[in-house]
Amino acid sequence: MSEAxxxxxxxxxxxxxxxxxxxxxxxxxxxxxxxxxxxxxKVGAANFKKVVRHxxxxxxKTVTVYAFSTENWSRPPREVKAIMxxxxxxxxxxxxxxxxxxxxxxFIGDRSVLSEDLRRRIDRIEEISAGxxxxxxxxxxxxxxxxxxxxxxxxLARGVEKVSAEDISSALYTAHSxxxxxxxxxxxxxxxxxxxxxxxxxxxxxxxDVLWPDLSEEDVDEAVRHFYARQRRFGGV
Length: 237
Known about the structure:
Layout: E1 18-22, H1 26-31, H2 37-57, E2 62-69, H3 77-93, E3 103-108, H4 116-128, E4 134-142, H5 144-157, H6 165-171, E5 182-185, E6 204-207, H7 217-229
Parallel strand pairs: 1-2, 1-5, 2-4, 3-4, 5-6
């Protein structure tokens, strides 16, 4: 990650280890500018890199982004194709990006419907980035309900006869990461949209009207400050 910009830059502590983003508003951002929705995804992809870099700069160890949901396949084929092309370009550029050298990439979701070439690229970047400092979970063809069903079926296939909450957590796509402490949704909608439903049990939620391509480092800092202003009781008093 890049060096801190100032001595007074916000820094997180152990209370905020994992932040997750629902990156909403790319299409609307483009339409407001009389541009095709695909252009919004391109600008949003560039902003995604900036946001992840900033999260590393302020000390967050795990970042999860909702890149493509199981429901997103119903979007116009041209838009889906553009999103997949952006993903391929991102994967191809990971090695050359100096800001990505400390990122461990994990792709969570059902990969079975992805192309063989895309699966191969994902496997490669996960392998070469293993052991790095910052974990970036990219939710791709991801749906939380499907994830929970997949986890339970995995446990049953292993012969588990009585499933516990700990068992399910260990079988989720995110078993390698702590549960999110803070979930940020851009674009003004006030829902989780089938994202990390199990893991979000005690996450703090932060909603902003800012569309994803416009989300700034200052906006991320504002969400973090809101997080620290809240009291997390985890069911206690």
